[in-house]
Amino acid sequence: MSNTFPAASGHWHNRYLLMRHGHSLANQQGRIISSPERGLTGYGLSSRGREQLDGLLVDWRWATPGRILHSDFRRTTETAERIAHHFGLRLEAEERLRERHFGSLEGEADERYAEVWARDAHDPAHRHAGVEAVAEVAARMSGLIAELEQRHAGETILLVSHGDPLQILLAALEGRELTRHRERPPLAPASVTVL
Predict the structure, then answer these.
(1) How many domains would you assign to the chain?
(2) For the chain, what is the radius of gyration of the CA atoms?
């Protein structure tokens, strides 16, 4: 599998806003919640996450989205629902925006992410402990952008996802080696990055 994806040409048919979900109960508990079995129905936004989004919407300083696609996990759905309600938009659940699956580390303390990231730095195709490979995450996330570029033009599209998949997507679109995806500053909960 390739370790890089072609760098973005700098010309997009659409404007993309990449958003990490607000602070969640998984963040609050310091737990890895990456499986659909747990993430779709549990571990939504914490009270801190709801407050983050309230503040963000009062001081929205990005282009107004015309379309919102979101991971169908509860924490990303709840984040997207608040934004959609604010702007009067409908939601589009998109499985390709889901959290990276962390295999047998599911439910473990989030300090164990570091073990996976250390392996990522040497091999973007590793699947140690059943973890979804960085290269696979990059392919599904980049594939969504490519599809949106073919289907739409001139839109502002908000993509609500999770920290690790967004870091990996940004590395892929920058043409950075996927082994270096953790070299970017981590995306904070409820942060928005303009692509």
Answers:
(1) 1
(2) 16
Q: Which two tokens stand for residue 177?
A: 């080696």
What average pLDDT score do residues 119-133 get? 97
Residues contacting residue 5 through CB under 8 Å, at least 6 positions apart: 138, 142, 172, 173, 175, 178
The β-bridge relationship of strands 192-194 and 15-20 is antiparallel
Q: What is the pTM of this model?
A: 0.94
84-to-38, 87, 100, 146, 159 alpha-carbon distances in Å: 24, 5, 24, 23, 12
What whole-number distance in Å separates Cα of residue 55 and Cα of residue 157? 21
**C-alpha span between 178 and 157 (Å, rounded):** 24
The string of pLDDT tens digits covering residues 44-66 is 999 999 999 999 999 999 999 99
CATH of the domain at 190: 3.40.50.1240
Measured CA to CA, the distance from residue 12 to residue 127 in angstroms comes to: 32
Can you give the residue range of the structural domain that contains 32? Answer: 15-194
